[in-house]
Amino acid sequence: MAAHTHKTRTNRYLEHHPQTTSSGKRAQAKRGPKRWSKRVMETSNALDLERGVFAGPDPTAVARSLKRSAERSQRRKADPFRSAMSMLTFYVNRAGKKLPRQRRRILEQAKDELRAQFHRPRKRAA
Asked: Are 65 and 52 in contact (CB under 8 A)?
């Protein structure tokens, strides 16, 4: 005997209105992907970063570039260290699983280097 599946109001609606979905994926496919993280980078009170700053092979150079950008930027709200670290963390988090292991390791080393350049101690796990 087959199990009875309960249809929610949303599922019944979608059966009759296939052009829309609860997540808007179909409409989004027509317009192209929403790049909210790109909009954040361009319009928020974030840092004005050098092009390709996160692509460098040297964690020290990445940290140095972030520090320079944070100290020069007029768009930041927090102190330079917090702004630079936030931007680096934002990039790593947005890349997610697509970020290659080698690149992630370099960027995590850049966090440590950034702490050293701003003379901040490394926080220890409890």
From this structure: no
Cα 95 from Cα 73, distance rounded (Å): 24
Extract the tokens encoding 26. Answer: 């179909």
Instruction: Report the C-alpha gap between 77 and 95 in whole angstroms.
Output: 24
- State yes or no: pLDDT of 76 exceeds 80: no
Cβ pair 41, 48 in contact under 8 A: no
Flag whether pLDDT at 73 surpasses 80: yes
Assign 41 a pLDDT band (cuts: 50, 70, 90).
low
What is the CA 78 to chain-centroid distance, rounded?
Answer: 18
Given a cut of 80, whether residue 13 has pLDDT beyond it is no
